[in-house]
Amino acid sequence: MEIERTTFGTITIDGKTYEHDVIIRLSGEVAKRKKKLSKKYYGTSHVLSKDEAKFVFEKGCEQLILGSGQYGNVHLSPEAEAYFASKGCRVLLQPTPKAIDTFNNSHARKIGLFHVTC
After folding, report:
1. Which GO terms describe its cellular component (predicted)?
2. How many CB atoms lie within 10 A of CB 15?
3. How do 30-32 and 22-24 pair as beta strands?
4. DSSP sequence for 12-53
5. Structural domain spans, the chain
């Protein structure tokens, strides 16, 4: 699996372009991000809630690579940060273009969450 590129509003993975935020599971499956799990608490998808963290996390995950948007606007809530820490999952938060490189080069058991706009 390879993430090929991102532009504002899109991400291309293995030749398929997605026009929404995505999660890449441990298995390599690409799924649409469930932003509503965070929006119901914060009114925005720019803060990752504990509910969304629970949805994203999978047993055996060593690393979450979180693409925080083209301009780096997404961040974790303190509760989500504590949740990942309690599971032993290291979180790397980087603007989406940088996070793509990190994801492609990481050999950890990883999940990717990529915000494709701001």
Report:
1. cytoplasm
2. 7
3. antiparallel
4. EETTEEESS-EEE-TTS-EEE--THHHHHHHSSSSEE-HHHH
5. 3-114
Residues 40 and 68 sit within 8 Å (Cβ to Cβ): no
Q: Is the pTM of this model over 0.90?
A: yes
Phi, psi of 26 (to 5 degrees): -55, -35
Nearest residue to 73 via CA among 106, 108, 38: 38
- Token couple for 112: 């990717």
Beta-carbon contacts of 71 under 8 Å, excluding residues fewer than 6 positions away, are 95, 118
| 3.40.50.150, 3.40.1230.10, 2.30.42.10, 1.10.486.10: CATH of 3-114 | 3.40.1230.10
Longest dimension (CA), the chain: 35
By DSSP bridging, strand 30-32 and strand 63-68 are unpaired
Identify the three-state secondary structure at position 79. Answer: helix
Is the pLDDT confidence value at 1 over 90? no
Question: CA–CA separation, 69 vs 71, rounded Å?
Answer: 5
- Give residue 2's pLDDT: 95
